[in-house]
Amino acid sequence: MEEIKKEIDESKQGQTTMLDSNTEGARKVYIESYGCQMNFSDSEIVASILTKDGFNTTKNLEEADLVLVNTCSIREKAEQTVRNRLKSFQHAKKKKPEMMIGVLGCMAERLKSKFLEEEKLVDIVVGPDAYRDLPNLVQQVDEGKKAVNVILSKEETYADISPVRLLSNGVSAFISITRGCDNMCTFCVVPFTRGRERSRNPESILEEAKDLFNRGYKEVTLLGQNVDSYLWYGKEGLKKNFDTLSDEEKAESMNFAQLMEQVALISPLLRVRFSTSHPKDITDEFLHTMAKYDNICKYIHLPFQSGNSRVLEVMNRGYTREWYMERIDKIKEIMPDCSISADIIAGFCSETEEEHKETLSLMDYVRYDFSYMFKYSERPNTQAQRKLDDDVSEEDKSRRLSEIVALQRDHSFEINKNYVGSVYEVLVEKNSKRSDDELAGRTSQNTVVVFPRKDYKVGDYVKVHVHDCTGGTLLGTAVE
Ligand code: 5AD
Ligand code: SF4
């Protein structure tokens, strides 16, 4: 089934995005992105910073003067993919010795200047909060030095930078609303690589969304490691405890539900998505806001990681199995048509066979549309690496993962079959991969629908009657 990602290492990590060239100019930058949507979004910020500095973007590695790789550290395999890719650049560099190679993102932050020693090929190492410094770093390399900036910031949100939307189909775009993460899940490297959580000024978010809509975009996805903890404190800045604010300050503040409402109000023709939600922070207020606006897509990515309360505690997730189930019940009560997906980790430290079975039974309870499923991969310097034993054997991890994958496949198939026979509004995003006579788009629930083109085009909203499904894709015909 297409939608089932067996292991995100193979799926998300494989996605490589090359920026196309835009204007005539001197030096050319080529960017590849790996990992989460946030990295893809960050690459657009990087492209913006560099184009302002006189660079053009290119899709062609061979003609690039500057090659940048935006990297992911979430699992060991993700890092290995990047290392292999860096090695493969050697060929291009041999042909063009003046080519600069830079590493951006989480691996840059994790390894810092060690990267320069380990990977002799690399000239520039830049962490996620230091992209504004790229023009200076390039200049340092021009002067014959190696260049590193991995300083993390408590404030940087790149709020004023208008991303270069070269990754997009002209229909949907990402808008980052928070950076970093304060949750400290024990398995996760993100709090170390992306730093403290901070929320972006809502005015700049709304401006960006309005601008996209005015330029013809029909869908925005609000991005953050934990969008539910979005909180803007108004003029007073980054106070942490909401309860300590004065009434006046509280009135000036904006939470995620309120931000979402403002974005939804830009136009009923602008679809709004968001990722990622956190079970401990997703509020009823937010769910009611979602339900109130048709243009807020009825789809929630709500990672649960494990279905067992003891394992969740060891993971420091901040909720129990029962809490998670209650949140699911609430979602289904308020929005019966809402689809839900999850992230699941198989074989975390000390997980027993019975505890693993509770992951399967939680999947049975929720019935996810799809899931991203992983084997636990120990990451350097995380709480789990320092304090816990990675004691589930590789064999058990693999078997548990394959049980999870098989169950998800059954659920996805059942759910897709239930969509057959109904009419859904589809936002057309591209030509179908199968044929130029067909278009592909997504329902509000995030399911891909393919249907005969007729006179419709990319960017149209089309009512489609679904008559069949193959794997993760629904097949239909447009109805007038
Ligand atoms: N091993 C396996 N999966 C992990 N994730 C995060 N850290 C690890 C790790 N060390 C998964 C979680 C998270 C998703 C983005 O990646 O499921 O939600
Ligand atoms: Fe990592 Fe947990 Fe933060 Fe997600 S919420 S980025 S899993 S620490």
Structure description:
The structure is a single chain. This protein has about 475 residues and is an alpha/beta fold. Among the domains are: about 1-150, Methylthiotransferase, N-terminal domain (Rossmann fold), CATH 3.40.50; about 425-480, OB fold (Dihydrolipoamide Acetyltransferase, E2P) (Beta Barrel). The protein contains 16 helices and 21 strands. A 6-stranded parallel sheet has the order 2-1-3-4-5-6, with helices on both faces. The protein has a 5-stranded mixed beta barrel with strand order 17-18-19-21-20. Strands 7-10-13 form a 3-stranded parallel sheet. α10 packs parallel to α11. The longest helix is centred in the C-terminal third of the chain and has 26 residues, at about 395-420. The radius of gyration is 22 Å and the shape is globular. The two termini are about 30 Å apart. Iron/sulfur cluster binds near residues 185, 190 and 226.
Short description:
35% of the residues lie in helices and 21% in strands. The strands form six sheets. A six-stranded parallel beta sheet has the order 2-1-3-4-5-6, with helices on both faces. Strands 17-18-19-21-20 form a five-stranded mixed β-barrel. The chain has a three-stranded parallel beta sheet with strand order 7-10-13.
| Low-confidence regions | 1-16
- The termini sit apart by 30 Å
Number of helices: 16
- Give the beta-strand count: 21
CATH homologous superfamily placement of the domain at 2-149: Methylthiotransferase, N-terminal domain
Bound small molecules, deduplicated: 5'-deoxyadenosine, iron/sulfur cluster
CATH topology label of the domain at 2-149 = Rossmann fold
